[in-house]
Design a protein that fits this description.
By secondary structure, the chain is mostly helical. 75% of the residues lie in helices and 0% in strands. It is built from 4 helices and no strands. It starts with 16 loop residues before the first helix and ends with a helix.
Length: 110
């Protein structure tokens, strides 16, 4: 619901638009502080527009079926084993072999 984590493209004509996003609420707070209904109206309209934008993106821009299909396709791809994973697997196999050898030696002693 917030625009804090949205990366906005840098445009040559409007370099200060990000600053305005922070200045407008503070400015309206001072101008409309004496009239509570004006400040409430500003916050209501701002939140309503943000909710509408989110709903438009969710229902008309994003295709959930396509995204889900892509996720399923990625799950089916074979996973490559990294160097660290390979070394950990080799160490686990060695530890299991040593444990089996120790158990066999204990079995012979009995």
């Amino acid at each position: 619901m917030t625009s804090g984590n949205i990366q906005q493209p840098q445009q040559e004509g409007m370099p200060n638009m990000k600053v305005l996003m922070y200045i407008f609420p503070v400015t309206f707070l001072f101008f409309l502080n004496t009239s509570a209904s004006g400040l409430s109206w500003y916050y209501f309209v701002s939140n309503a527009i943000n909710i509408l934008i989110i709903l438009v993106i969710k229902y008309w821009i994003l295709d959930e079926k396509k995204i889900h299909a892509q996720i399923q396709a990625n799950k089916e791809k074979p996973k490559t084993e990294g160097k660290f994973q390979r070394r950990m697997r080799e160490m686990m196999e060695k530890a299991q072999e040593q444990q089996k050898a120790t158990e066999q030696q204990r079995g012979k002693k009995k």
